[in-house]
TrEMBL record:
InterPro entries: N_methyl_site, Pilin-like, T2SS_GspH. One of its GO terms (biological process) is protein secretion by the type II secretion system. It is found in: Cell inner membrane. It is a single-pass membrane protein. The chain crosses the membrane at residues 20-41. Keywords: Cell inner membrane, Cell membrane, Membrane, Methylation, Transmembrane, Transmembrane helix. The keyword Cell inner membrane applies. One of its GO terms (cellular component) is plasma membrane. This is Type II secretion system protein H. Residues 53-165 form the General secretion pathway GspH domain. Belongs to the GSP H family. Its main location: membrane.
Length: 181
């Protein structure tokens, strides 16, 4: 046993209080540096999640119009039963059949969406809903939805629905993003 060292009084060493406090201080500095970028990532993720939610709902509404061979509308809704006359969509939305062309669902909505409390979601004042026709097109002019983070307008995203009924995500122009403030 000539090459083996005995563990005795000085053989094993623990962590001192000073070393532990230094490690905690370094960790606190690293967390402090990472927090702002993490918060920015979370803000952007919130806006992007709402954008994807709307793109999926628009695709669903268009598909239901073709499948059911009737008019299906996508509109803002505060009560999850009727379409709102406002151009604010952050309170929720619905998808519903509109055979009688009154821009309200004829029966219970096919699908409803939840409110996005920390976002501002707007359409143009002249275009408050999308109506998909049985051929999948969207009657009327193009619709642009603007998704804004209330505190950081630079995080804005958009959704554009063409007359052909195709919905796509977009980055708003500077003029459109100014509508966030």
């Amino acid at each position: 046993m000539a090459g083996m060292r005995q563990c005795g009084r000085g053989g094993s060493r623990g962590v001192t209080l000073i070393e532990l406090m230094t490690a905690v201080a370094i960790l606190a500095v690293l967390v402090g540096i990472a927090s702002p970028s993490l918060a920015g990532l979370m803000r952007h993720e919130r806006v992007q999640s709402a954008q994807v939610d709307f793109l999926a709902a628009l695709g669903y509404a268009r598909g239901e119009a073709v499948l059911r061979r009737t008019r299906v509308l996508f509109c803002p809704s505060l009560d999850r039963i009727h379409c709102s006359e406002a151009n604010r969509w952050d309170g929720g939305w619905l998808v519903g059949v509109d055979r009688d062309r009154d821009n309200q669902p004829d029966e219970a909505p096919l699908r409803v969406g939840e409110a996005h409390a920390q976002l501002l979601i707007l359409s143009a004042a002249s275009r408050r809903h999308v109506t998909f026709l049985p051929d999948g097109s969207a009657s009327g002019s193009n619709l642009t939805l603007l998704f804004c983070n209330r505190d950081h307008p630079g995080d804005a995203l958009g959704v554009v629905v063409s007359n052909a009924g195709r919905a796509r995500g977009s980055r708003p122009t500077g003029k459109q993003a100014a509508g966030c403030g």
